[in-house]
Design goal:
heterodimer, A: about 625 residues, Rossmann fold, Ubiquitin-like (UB roll), 5 domains, five-stranded mixed sheet, four-stranded mixed sheet, 17 strands, globular, B: about 260 residues, alpha+beta, about 20% strand
């Protein structure tokens, strides 16, 4: 159906709102990339089969709607299935569980206890009562569990495109910009630049055409917030972009998305064509004078292409390399024309701000960071997944209340925020309220929202080495400090972890890090030293132990420890000797065993298999 | 537009047109800032970072200071520039030391090291062969911007970055003008004349030379002369001569080309 007037769209939206008939049930199967990886599509197929059989037998009078949705966030417990209404939450569902879910929950409203979420306390039935969800504020991400990303009607039914209707019906571009400015929304891609101010600069810049661009080049290891928004709710991003285009006066938009995100590309492509058919994109949107369309451009996965000027070069079909930003891309960007670039999550916030108003929006958050922020909580944390919290939530709330703390009773050591060029914050910073300015002041950064939790078995020198290694490969190589400096920083770190650290290495790292930070051309280089500087700031002693004592306190750096067998604990069960791939363990039955350091490759299998804790790490 | 921008460089006030860069404004005062990837005839790219300067700007009663490359930084009213502050000297020295790790034999770098106090061997050398290339990109820019050929480009990322011909093979568009070698600050582009052919191993190129119609010595690559014929309005008989014979020819003739030398 093609809407040719705003009123038509609103009437249709009223019709499709809450389309579930009385007594009806919706089975929401998470089809996000995480749940798909753990078998969600098989679960979905099993539901399809079961429901088809049901219909054939005429057994069900109630209407049952099966929905493959985007990511629900709780990836740790996938595949996830939620039965609505009632939000009965089943986790780690396999195809074999489907028959029981249909027979009991869908048809009779009974609970399948074995599939419920359990932690220390008793089982939890409802989605909203699970600690992981209970402490979140899911105002951007929450619709994911209710809609099919492939249905514009689903989005309309949840209030979608109402912000666009409001804008086209009753607002001028100036009013839209003023509202976004009043919301204090700051760019969610990492820079935290005020979105409204960016829009105003773009609108005021001279140029025969203007562009709006969506940055979906999410490249931080372990981060998948933007991916999951695009996969699960692409219309929300499209709506934000149409409104942005109206505000800045753009006729063409682009989504620059990684080719490694096939599901995001597929769902976005479907959503764009649906939006076009509905008259929400193209000439004279909803019968108004606003014309705008969006193209998808798939990026090859270079990390630097998330940088605005590099992204625009890449979009032009050239090599994605940054340029100096003395002239901002809102003035001269894509094809040297005014181009307004915002990240996926920023665009997804726009409909909310227009619908609820800046006054409402600014009630959430801290003084200088308003609204919510999505984080991908990964690493050594019990509840891996995507979380959305108000700006100002503390690291402790995110990692412990929502994330459930550290698995296997281990101690928290650090959390890395802001992607590869973010920083590592120690336990003493757990009560830090998370917003743009607090994270920067602590030596880390918001970045796009990656959050990697590390436990006591993590070596911070090794972590810095890992991230610098990533950046060695991802620096474009255009400017000297980034190209050569990161390589040299990595070389020094690599040497330290291999037991080749020299006195003065810490000072060398600090001096060089300063050069890379202060003299690099773009933000990649300017922030690349953060992993080194923040670990030096909070874990200096660990560096010193590596360099001076040739010891890795966390027992990670292989060159700095060897495996040994505690003769008092060893029972001579021979298990380690039988498992060792190198034949490095010897000893008689029922007598303490020994490890030959010359033959040992430090794979750690002996320690894994020992049931008596007799295999220990000792300084090499 | 007679409007000018006032700024202070190393304590000296100056007024320059708005589109001037800090590097140009400094040059106007006779203040030399070292550069490697800069050439007045080419677009600046601000990549070698040797020309970094310390900038300070007062806004709303607060002074903001930062480091930037002078070759790409446009002048701003009231800007204060320090081209050799202790901080600039320290960072510039380290940048030269980083470049030296890549091209320790480069004469221009050794000279720059002497001027900046940079030491050789401060950093390990990345494994990148024996070339003295410092990836300033002047060759790439001259080839595309001035010659209009675009026969070479940057390939690979980060520490693996290289200037290459297409897929490492001879570019069909290369005319052998050698402008790349002319602008290269570290003489990293090799070429040799052998058996009537110009060989440029750096670009895997071999070009046939045109021989002087008068003395028979090699003049220039045939492809280059063809390009000149199209680009420059010169009489064909002159293009066929080597520079020496051309001079003789011009002296003999009416003086029509007296100024071409």
């Amino acid at each position: 159906m093609r809407f040719t007037a705003v009123e038509q769209l609103k009437a249709h939206a009223r019709n499709v709102a809450d389309s579930l008939p009385a007594g009806g049930k919706m089975i929401s199967v998470c089809g996000g990339s995480g749940c798909r990886a753990s078998g969600a599509l098989e679960v979905l197929a099993a539901f399809q089969e079961a429901l088809a059989a049901l219909r054939k037998n005429g057994a069900s009078s109630a209407q049952v709607v099966l929905k493959e949705t985007g990511c629900h966030g709780f990836c740790e417990r996938g595949p996830l299935v939620v039965i609505r209404p009632g939000n009965i939450f089943y986790q780690r569902v396999g195809p074999e569980d489907v028959a029981e879910i249909v027979a009991k929950t869908v048809l009779k409203g009974e609970i399948v206890e074995s599939l419920l979420y359990k932690d220390g306390e008793g089982p939890v039935v409802h989605e909203e009562d699970i600690p992981f969800y209970k402490h979140q504020t899911r105002q951007v991400f929450g619709d994911n569990g209710y809609i099919s990303p492939r249905s514009v009607d689903d989005y309309l039914g949840r209030g979608g495109y109402q912000a666009l209707a409001k804008v086209l019906e009753s607002m001028t571009p100036e009013q839209v910009i003023a509202e976004v400015e009043a919301s204090s929304l700051r760019g969610r891609g990492g820079g935290g630049f005020p979105t409204g101010r960016k829009w105003r600069s773009c609108r005021e810049a001279a140029g025969e055409r203007r562009y709006v661009i969506c940055n979906a080049d999410e490249g931080d290891p372990g981060a998948y917030m933007d991916r999951s928004i695009l996969e699960g709710n692409p219309h929300r991003v499209i709506e934000g972009m149409i409104i942005g285009a109206f505000a800045v006066g753009a006729g063409q938009g682009y989504v620059y998305v990684r080719a490694e995100y096939p599901l995001a590309v597929e769902n976005l492509r479907l959503a764009l064509s649906e939006a076009r058919e509905a008259g929400l994109l193209g000439e004279n949107i909803l019968g108004t004078k606003h014309s705008f369309d969006i193209k998808i451009s798939r990026g090859g996965g270079a990390f630097v292409c998330g940088e605005s000027t590099a992204l625009m070069r890449s979009l032009e079909g050239k090599v994605g390399e940054p340029r100096t930003k003395h002239i901002h891309s809102v003035v001269s960007g894509f094809h040297d024309l005014p181009s307004n670039l915002n990240n996926v999550e920023t665009w997804a916030n726009i409909p909310l701000i227009i619908n609820r108003g800046a006054d409402w929006y600014t009630r959430t958050g801290t003084k200088h960071s308003k609204g919510t922020k999505l984080f991908s909580l990964v690493g050594k944390v019990v509840n891996t997944g995507l979380v959305e919290v108000p700006m100002g939530a503390t690291l402790r709330q995110i990692i412990f209340d929502i994330g459930g703390g550290i698995p296997a009773g281990k101690a928290f050591k650090a959390v890395q925020t802001g992607g590869p060029s973010g920083g590592c914050l120690p336990a003493s910073m757990l009560d830090l309220p998370v917003d743009f300015d607090e994270l920067s002041a602590a030596g880390s950064m918001m970045g796009s929202g990656g959050m990697i939790v590390m436990d006591e078995e993590t070596c911070m020198v090794d972590v810095a080495r890992y991230f610098l290694g990533f950046l060695v490969e991802e620096s474009c190589g255009k400017c000297t400090p980034c190209r050569e400096g990161i390589y040299q920083l990595h070389t020094i770190l690599d040497n330290i972890t291999r037991g080749l650290g020299r006195p003065g290495d810490i000072e060398r790292l600090e001096a060089l890090a300063e050069t890379v930070r202060d003299t690099s051309l773009c933000a990649l280089g300017k922030t690349a030293a953060n992993p080194v500087l923040s670990t030096l700031r909070y874990f200096r002693e660990e560096y010193r132990r590596h360099i001076e004592d040739r010891q890795c306190p966390a027992g990670v750096c292989r060159a700095l420890f060897r495996y040994d067998i505690d003769a008092e604990l060893c029972t001579g069960c021979t298990r380690c000797a039988r498992t060792c791939p190198q034949g490095a363990v010897s000893g008689k039955k029922k007598e303490p065993h020994q490890i030959d350091p010359a033959a040992c490759i430090k794979c750690g299998i002996c320690q894994d298999v020992c049931r008596f804790g007799a295999v220990i790490k000792v300084p090499a | 537009m007679s409007k000018t921008v006032k700024l202070t460089i190393d304590g000296r006030e100056t007024a320059v047109p708005p589109s001037t860069t800090v590097l140009e404004a400094a040059a106007g005062l006779g203040i030399e800032i070292p550069t490697l990837c800069y050439h007045p005839a080419l677009s600046p790219q601000g990549s070698c970072r040797v020309c970094i300067v310390e900038l300070a700007e007062e806004r709303n009663g607060r002074t903001r200071s930062w480091i930037d490359a002078a070759c790409v930084c446009p002048v701003v009213e009231g800007l204060t520039v320090q081209t050799a502050s202790p901080r600039v000297r320290r960072e510039r020295r380290r940048i030269v030391e980083l470049l030296l790790s890549r091209a320790p034999e480069s004469e221009v770098l050794i000279d720059l090291a002497r001027r900046t106090g940079a030491e050789k061997g401060k950093f390990v050398s990345p494994d990148k062969g024996s070339s003295n290339c410092i990836l300033c990109g002047l060759c790439v820019r001259v080839c595309s911007e001035l010659v209009g050929v675009g026969g070479i480009g940057m390939a690979f990322r980060g520490i693996h970055r290289q200037v290459v011909s297409p897929l490492g093979q001879a570019a069909s568009v290369c005319v052998g003008c050698m402008a790349c070698a002319y602008v290269c600050p570290t003489s990293a582009i090799e070429s040799a004349l052998k058996d009537g052919r110009l060989s440029i191993p750096t670009w895997s190129a071999e070009l046939e030379m045109s021989l002087c119609s008068s003395c028979g010595r090699p003049v220039a690559p045939k492809a280059y002369l063809e390009k000149l014929k199209q680009d420059v309005n010169l009489r064909e008989e002159l293009l066929g001569l080597c520079p020496e014979c051309r001079r003789k020819h011009v002296r003999i003739s009416s003086g029509e080309y007296g100024n071409t030398d």
